[in-house]
Specification:
By secondary structure, this protein is of the alpha+beta class. The protein contains five helices and five strands; from the N terminus they run H-E-H-E-E-H-E-H-E-H.
Length: about 180
Protein backbone atom coordinates (compact mmCIF):
# COMPACT_ATOMS: atom_id res chain seq x y z
CA UNK A 1 0.00 0.00 0.00
CA UNK A 2 1.24 3.48 -0.87
CA UNK A 3 2.14 5.89 1.95
CA UNK A 4 -0.52 8.42 0.88
CA UNK A 5 -3.19 5.71 0.76
CA UNK A 6 -2.05 4.44 4.15
CA UNK A 7 -2.24 7.97 5.56
CA UNK A 8 -5.80 8.31 4.22
CA UNK A 9 -6.93 4.98 5.67
CA UNK A 10 -5.33 5.42 9.12
CA UNK A 11 -5.42 9.16 9.87
CA UNK A 12 -7.46 11.25 7.44
CA UNK A 13 -10.68 9.22 7.59
CA UNK A 14 -10.84 9.54 11.38
CA UNK A 15 -10.18 13.30 11.29
CA UNK A 16 -12.90 13.84 8.68
CA UNK A 17 -15.46 11.78 10.63
CA UNK A 18 -14.77 13.76 13.82
CA UNK A 19 -14.63 17.18 12.16
CA UNK A 20 -17.83 16.86 10.12
CA UNK A 21 -19.63 14.54 12.58
CA UNK A 22 -20.30 11.90 9.90
CA UNK A 23 -22.35 8.90 10.97
CA UNK A 24 -22.31 6.94 7.72
CA UNK A 25 -19.04 5.44 6.45
CA UNK A 26 -20.14 6.08 2.86
CA UNK A 27 -20.38 9.83 3.55
CA UNK A 28 -16.64 10.13 4.19
CA UNK A 29 -15.05 12.09 1.31
CA UNK A 30 -12.55 10.12 -0.75
CA UNK A 31 -10.71 10.59 -4.03
CA UNK A 32 -12.48 8.51 -6.66
CA UNK A 33 -10.16 9.06 -9.62
CA UNK A 34 -7.56 11.40 -11.08
CA UNK A 35 -7.80 12.47 -14.72
CA UNK A 36 -4.63 13.78 -16.38
CA UNK A 37 -5.06 15.62 -19.70
CA UNK A 38 -2.50 17.02 -22.09
CA UNK A 39 -3.67 19.11 -25.01
CA UNK A 40 -1.39 18.95 -28.01
CA UNK A 41 -2.78 20.62 -31.09
CA UNK A 42 0.58 20.22 -32.87
CA UNK A 43 0.00 16.44 -32.91
CA UNK A 44 -2.02 16.96 -36.10
CA UNK A 45 1.05 17.93 -38.09
CA UNK A 46 3.76 16.01 -36.26
CA UNK A 47 3.42 12.26 -35.60
CA UNK A 48 6.80 12.15 -33.85
CA UNK A 49 5.62 14.70 -31.29
CA UNK A 50 2.54 12.57 -30.58
CA UNK A 51 4.74 9.57 -29.74
CA UNK A 52 7.10 11.66 -27.59
CA UNK A 53 4.27 13.28 -25.60
CA UNK A 54 2.50 9.94 -25.24
CA UNK A 55 5.67 8.35 -23.86
CA UNK A 56 6.22 11.29 -21.48
CA UNK A 57 2.66 11.09 -20.14
CA UNK A 58 2.95 7.30 -19.78
CA UNK A 59 6.19 7.77 -17.83
CA UNK A 60 4.61 10.36 -15.52
CA UNK A 61 1.40 8.43 -14.79
CA UNK A 62 2.51 4.81 -15.18
CA UNK A 63 -0.30 4.14 -17.64
CA UNK A 64 -0.60 4.45 -21.42
CA UNK A 65 -2.65 7.53 -22.40
CA UNK A 66 -5.59 7.42 -24.77
CA UNK A 67 -5.63 9.77 -27.74
CA UNK A 68 -8.50 12.28 -27.70
CA UNK A 69 -10.05 13.21 -31.02
CA UNK A 70 -11.69 16.49 -32.00
CA UNK A 71 -15.48 16.33 -31.68
CA UNK A 72 -16.16 19.26 -34.01
CA UNK A 73 -14.32 20.97 -36.86
CA UNK A 74 -12.87 24.43 -36.21
CA UNK A 75 -11.65 26.05 -39.41
CA UNK A 76 -9.67 28.87 -37.75
CA UNK A 77 -7.47 26.33 -35.95
CA UNK A 78 -7.26 23.96 -38.92
CA UNK A 79 -8.91 21.18 -36.92
CA UNK A 80 -11.21 18.66 -38.56
CA UNK A 81 -13.58 16.35 -36.76
CA UNK A 82 -11.79 13.13 -35.77
CA UNK A 83 -8.25 14.57 -35.70
CA UNK A 84 -6.11 13.86 -32.60
CA UNK A 85 -5.96 16.93 -30.34
CA UNK A 86 -4.95 15.62 -26.91
CA UNK A 87 -3.98 12.80 -24.59
CA UNK A 88 -5.83 11.61 -21.50
CA UNK A 89 -5.19 9.18 -18.63
CA UNK A 90 -7.64 8.16 -15.88
CA UNK A 91 -5.98 6.83 -12.74
CA UNK A 92 -7.68 4.86 -9.99
CA UNK A 93 -6.56 2.86 -6.99
CA UNK A 94 -2.88 2.42 -6.21
CA UNK A 95 -1.62 4.20 -9.35
CA UNK A 96 -3.76 7.19 -8.43
CA UNK A 97 -2.22 7.42 -4.95
CA UNK A 98 1.30 6.95 -6.39
CA UNK A 99 0.70 9.82 -8.82
CA UNK A 100 -0.78 12.11 -6.14
CA UNK A 101 2.11 11.42 -3.79
CA UNK A 102 4.56 12.30 -6.56
CA UNK A 103 2.55 15.40 -7.50
CA UNK A 104 2.27 16.78 -3.93
CA UNK A 105 5.80 16.06 -2.75
CA UNK A 106 7.97 16.32 -5.89
CA UNK A 107 6.39 18.00 -8.91
CA UNK A 108 4.57 20.97 -7.38
CA UNK A 109 7.52 22.22 -5.29
CA UNK A 110 9.72 22.05 -8.43
CA UNK A 111 7.52 24.52 -10.32
CA UNK A 112 8.98 27.97 -10.84
CA UNK A 113 7.65 30.64 -8.42
CA UNK A 114 5.36 28.13 -6.69
CA UNK A 115 3.55 29.65 -3.71
CA UNK A 116 0.78 27.10 -3.29
CA UNK A 117 -2.33 26.04 -5.18
CA UNK A 118 -5.35 28.37 -5.33
CA UNK A 119 -8.43 27.55 -3.25
CA UNK A 120 -10.80 28.79 -5.96
CA UNK A 121 -10.27 25.78 -8.25
CA UNK A 122 -13.02 23.69 -6.63
CA UNK A 123 -16.21 23.17 -8.60
CA UNK A 124 -19.72 22.95 -7.09
CA UNK A 125 -19.42 19.18 -6.52
CA UNK A 126 -16.07 19.46 -4.70
CA UNK A 127 -13.77 18.31 -7.52
CA UNK A 128 -10.43 20.09 -7.86
CA UNK A 129 -8.56 20.98 -11.07
CA UNK A 130 -4.90 21.95 -11.32
CA UNK A 131 -3.23 23.34 -14.41
CA UNK A 132 0.54 22.84 -14.65
CA UNK A 133 2.44 24.89 -17.23
CA UNK A 134 5.28 22.37 -17.61
CA UNK A 135 5.19 18.60 -17.71
CA UNK A 136 8.96 18.65 -17.15
CA UNK A 137 8.38 19.39 -13.43
CA UNK A 138 8.02 15.65 -12.86
CA UNK A 139 11.34 13.99 -11.96
CA UNK A 140 10.95 11.12 -14.48
CA UNK A 141 11.11 13.45 -17.46
CA UNK A 142 14.60 14.19 -18.77
CA UNK A 143 14.53 17.89 -19.68
CA UNK A 144 17.23 17.44 -22.34
CA UNK A 145 15.20 14.83 -24.25
CA UNK A 146 11.71 16.26 -23.60
CA UNK A 147 11.93 19.25 -25.94
CA UNK A 148 9.39 22.03 -25.42
CA UNK A 149 7.45 21.82 -22.13
CA UNK A 150 3.73 21.11 -22.47
CA UNK A 151 0.93 21.97 -20.10
CA UNK A 152 -0.91 19.34 -18.11
CA UNK A 153 -4.33 19.51 -16.49
CA UNK A 154 -4.93 17.31 -13.44
CA UNK A 155 -8.50 16.85 -12.16
CA UNK A 156 -9.13 15.18 -8.81
CA UNK A 157 -12.65 13.71 -8.76
CA UNK A 158 -13.76 13.51 -5.13
CA UNK A 159 -16.73 11.57 -3.77
CA UNK A 160 -18.29 14.36 -1.78
CA UNK A 161 -21.03 16.85 -2.50
CA UNK A 162 -19.37 19.65 -0.56
CA UNK A 163 -16.28 21.69 -1.60
CA UNK A 164 -15.48 22.35 2.07
CA UNK A 165 -15.17 18.62 2.83
CA UNK A 166 -13.06 18.15 -0.30
CA UNK A 167 -10.76 20.99 0.75
CA UNK A 168 -10.24 19.45 4.18
CA UNK A 169 -9.56 16.03 2.64
CA UNK A 170 -6.87 17.44 0.34
CA UNK A 171 -5.38 19.53 3.16
CA UNK A 172 -5.03 16.46 5.39
CA UNK A 173 -3.45 14.51 2.52
CA UNK A 174 -0.79 17.20 2.20
CA UNK A 175 -1.82 19.23 -0.84
CA UNK A 176 0.11 22.54 -0.72
CA UNK A 177 -2.60 25.24 -0.79
CA UNK A 178 -1.64 28.91 -0.87
CA UNK A 179 -1.59 30.74 2.46
CA UNK A 180 -4.36 33.34 2.74
Amino acid sequence: MNRLQEKYEKEVKEKLVKEFNLKNVMAIPQIEKVVVNMGAGEMIKNKELKEKLSNDLATITGQKPSVRLAKISIATFGVRRGMPVGLSVTLRGERMYDFLDKLFSLALPRLRDFRGLPLKSFDKKGNYTIGLSEHTAFPEIDVAKAGAPHGIEVTLVIKSSDPEKSKKLLEYLGMPFEKA
